[in-house]
Every structure is written in C-alpha cells, then in structure tokens.
Amino acid sequence: MCGIVGYVGNQEAAPILLDGLARLEYRGYDSAGVAVFGNSGLKVAKAKGRLRVLSDQIQEGRAIQGQLGIGHTRWATHGAPSDVNSHPQVSQSGKIAVVHNGIIENYAQLKEFLVGHGVPFTSETDTEVVAQMIEYFYDGDILKAVGRVLHRIEGAYALGIVCSDEPDRLIAVRKDSPLILGLGEDFNFLASDVTAIIKHTRDVIYMEDGELAELTQTGVRCYNNLLESVEKEVFHVDWEIDAAEKGGYEHFMFKEIMEQPEALRRTVFPRIKDGEVIFEDFGLDDDYIRQINKIYIVACGSSYHVGMVGKYNLEQLLRLPVEVALASEFRYMEPIVDERTLVVVISQSGETLDTMAALREAKRLGGKILSIVNVVGSSIARESDVVLYTWAGPEIAVATTKAYSTQLAVVDLLGLYFARRRETMTEERYGQVIQELLLLPSKLEQVLESTQDIQYYASQYFNHDSVFFIGRNMDYALGLEGSLKLKEISYIHSEAYASGELKHGTISLIEDGTLVVALATYDKLFDKAMSNVVEVKSRGADVLALTTKNHAEEMGKTANGMITIPTTDELLLPSLGVVPLQLLSYYIALMRGCDIDKPRNLAKSVTVE
Ligand code: M6R
C-alpha cells in the first residue's frame, strides 16, 4: 500500500530517491518522506500531500546531501495523513530511521512495553514502534538489532532501515509485503517494485518472507531470520523504462488502455502454435487435468471480475463446476477444497494480501494452485504450483485496464487447453475460438478507433450522480467491471445489476433521466437484453447501450445512445466490451477533473487486509 525505496552508492541519494518515489507514487500518495545520511548526519524530510510538496520542500533533493538514504510514499493505515505520521519514522535519539510498507499487528502491545521503559512516542503510526524497538535492542550492530526485532513484531512488513552510527549500511527486511533489491556496479537499491529502479539497473533479487538484506555501495548480502547467510538468484528484468513512463500520454490509464492490443499479442500469440494452445513447462499433467472435479477462482476487485467472466467461459468449455470467490471472503468461509480442486488465483500485482491469504488457505486444504499474475517474481507467483504470466507490462494507473484484458485472455487459453485434454469441445469449435483469439488484438484496435463517440457520450453524462450497469450472464460480469471502473476514478455512484434482478427491487430507483448502461453484447440473450432496455426506458431511464455491430440497428431504435463492438466468438465478447467501458470511465473522470491515475483513498497494490 506504500512505496519504499532505498539507495546506497556514489551519487547524491535524495534526487535518486525522489525519482524512485515518483514511480512508486501509484502505491500510495497521501504523504512522502526521505532520510539521507551525509556529512551533517542523518537528515529527515517529510510532508503531507503529494510527492511534489516534499520535492519542493527539499529543492528536488538538492537541500539534503548524502549518498545513502531511504524514501517512502504513503497510503495511511495507522494515523491520519500528516507530516508527523509520514515516514521515515525515527527512533527517540534520531539515530535510526525506518520506512515501512504493511501493518505491524501487535504494535499496541509493543508500544506499551516501550512506553513502560520510558520511550517517548511522537506519531500514531505502527512504524514508529519498529524504529524505537530497533533502537532499544541496538548495541552497535544494526543487522543484529533488526534480527532481534523481527522475532517480536507480527504482521506484514517491507522495511528499509538506516542507522546513523553505521552510515554505510542499508538494511532491508521483508514479510508478506513486496521488496526487491536492485544490484549495480557502485550502488545498490531496495524498492517495493522494479519500476522504481529500472532506470538504474535491471538486475534484481526478489526477497522471500522472513529474509533480511544488508546493502552497501559495493555489495548485497542476504540472510534468513536467524541471520544465516543465504544465496539468492539474480534475475534480469527485460522490459524497457518507457513501459513505466507516460510516453506523451496525459495519463497512464489512457496509455494502458491503448496498449491493450499489443499486450494481448504478447500474452496470447506465443501460446498458440499451429492452431493449438501450448503452455511451455506447464506444471499440470494431462492426468491431473482430467481428474479435476472443481475449479475455484479467487481474486479481488477487477481480477475477481475476470473470474466472474471466467466462470461462464470455463463452465461452458469444460462442463465442470467453477466457483468464484472474493479472496477477502474465501478464507473465512470454510471453502470446500481438496486435491482434485484447481484453485485459480488471479492478481495483477501478485502482492494483494487478501489474495495471498486465500492462496495459502487453499494450499493448506490440499488444492493445487494455478496463478495468473502480471508481476514476475511476485509473492503469489512464487507461492503457486503453476504460474501463467499475463505479460501486460508494468501497469501504473490504479485503475486496471490492460491487466484485466490479458487476465481474461489467459483464462480463455486455459479453458481451451483443458477442454482439449478433457475432450469437451469439438475440433471445429476449438478452431473457431483459436482463430478469434488471434483476431482479438486487431478487433480491439477497431474499438480503440471509436474514442470520439465515447468522448461524446461522456460529455453527455459526466454530470450524472448515479449510474446503473445492467446485463445478463457474461454481460452482467462485464457490467461489474464497467461499474467499478466508473466509480473508482470518477467518484460517481454506480452499481451493476443482473438485468433480471431489476424487478426485485432496484427498478424503484429508476426515474426520469437515470443513466442506465445496458450491456447487450451476448447474442444468445439479446432479446432479453432488449426487453430490459424497454423496461427501464419506460420508467424514464436514459439508456446508453453497448452491443455488437450486428444488433446495432435493432438496438438503435430504442436506446438513447449506443456504442458498438465488432462481433467475435461469444467467449471473447467481454474482452472487446470492456474497452468502451474503460474509455467511458476515463473520459467521464477527465471531464469531472478527477485525478485519474491516482484516485482518492486508493492504491494500486493492496497489501493490507
Ligand atoms: O493486483 P490485483 O489484481 O490483485 O489487485 C486486485 C484489485 O485491488 C484491483 O483489481 C483493483 O480492483 C483495481 N484498482 C481496479 O481497477
């Protein structure tokens, strides 16, 4: 939920930290801070508000000199956003500074213990407890002091720590919150993710839970929680810095919407050879695939919505029960999972705490875990039995777009792969879907050409304060995503309803001028969708319909406005249908003057429960 970065090297640390934080700001942006060690000791600067406030305060970093430091951009959990609650948090003597992503669950007991020993506290944060505890145990070796504290703190944490008595060492610690190390010639980094450091190095180490690392200008050493040295593999990141920059677009979200055809090509094309879906080094053998008796899809937010579409598609392709669960509910609902249950975990970041916890619960119950993840080497990827990466490239905007599309494509590929082995599809149908999958990126390009129409509708509707998305089956699942996209970035209240449910209560909310986005892409249920359009129109609704080109004429007779998508195989309709909904939300948010890439109260990666 927060972004952390640390640098030790032969250059001025503060500007490097600020640049890294700017790339991590999507993780949290209510306050920011840095601590840098230089000739005049450990200097800390922090400020409530966006990173720009801090940057101005320290003159883009020129005001704080030193070649070692840590930085933080915050999404508040304990203590409101304020200068004093911002990180770094420092110990009472000012000797130890800590940046933290995560939550220390037993901070209240630890604080009581420290207060009992005369330690004064200045902030409301759980993180200050860590800084004070380290100082309490410090006897000249910061690594040892941190090691002692780790056995006392509970919860999730990625920590960056500096101590002014040992100004050539940075300490990194990780448990249930992401942290990577970036390796260079005369410098080393710690960071919440690769985007913060890709400008400087592509060689990274992914830290495991319970590990510590000691970084100096010339090297990095990793340890387990008993402070025994551990060997770590160095990974080479192969994407370019441009992928994490706006490249001339006003917003990351728009750039990422536009990148979808290419992201789909990267995700799908290498996995189709000679008309067959192939997964190289796939960890599930054909016997297991034939024995699966249930698929459970577990995810949060938009990834959950992918699961909702996935349920319709997989059940149709495999004739196998597919349950979809919100990861935050899964572990508390005593799920029925056994060794023949395949648990499909979907996550862009691979770090969502609820999803991670659900994965562990499913594993404990004996399920096999297949994850669909975008961030290579992330926690969820590492703890899964099998990983299918989405290859969408870095997604920076808080509102997900290209990750959703590529996740959906991977679910479809998975369905086809399994259907082949379980013999639940005819050759002909299999061939048709493959062909349409290959055409998907170019059809998506056609959709992206109609941005002007969508802009027009956004200008008509941007000042509405309540919107309903209605649809049936896959169109309902699509509506859930359309509705989330709209509310998260434009702050307009919106809800998605299965059209058939309207008459059981919701229709009482429809009155003159209520905007209803009617999703009618699903050929089989088009007539039902039309009836619902008529139903809400007759109650005064303003209907904006989304349908396929072949139904445009009929829909055009009734709806007030209409967006069309090309026809494709019914399984793939949500992959095309989601794009106009993303664009509609984007333009509406733009016209309302919202902060599109960083919507209020949200963060890209949700590493708290
Ligand atoms: O990284 P994940 O896919 O696990 O994230 C799950 C949700 O937090 C995420 O999809 C969220 O709903 C997006 N902001 C929606 O745009």
What descriptive keywords fit this protein?
alpha/beta; globular; binds 5-amino-5-deoxy-1-O-phosphono-D-mannitol; 8-stranded antiparallel sheet; 609 residues; 19 helices; 7-stranded antiparallel sheet
Describe this structure in words.
It is a single chain. The radius of gyration is 25 Å and the shape is globular. The protein has 609 residues and is of the alpha/beta class. The strands form five sheets. It has an eight-stranded antiparallel beta sheet, covered by helices on one side. The chain has a seven-stranded antiparallel beta sheet with strand order 5-6-7-8-12-13-14. The model has no long low-confidence stretch (mean pLDDT 93).
Rg over CA atoms, rounded to whole Å, is 25 Å
User: Which ions and ligands are bound to the chains?
Assistant: 5-amino-5-deoxy-1-O-phosphono-D-mannitol
The assigned structural class equals alpha/beta
Q: Mind summarizing the main beta sheet? A: 8 strands, antiparallel
Instruction: Please tell me the overall pLDDT.
Output: 93
Name the beta content range: 15-25%
Helix content: 25-40%
Q: How many helices in DSSP terms?
A: 19
Mass-distribution shape = globular
Q: What spatial order of strands do you see in the largest sheet? A: 3-2-4-1-10-9-11-15
Separation, N- and C-terminal Cα atoms: 10 Å
- Low-pLDDT residue spans: none
Would you count the extended β strands for me? 27
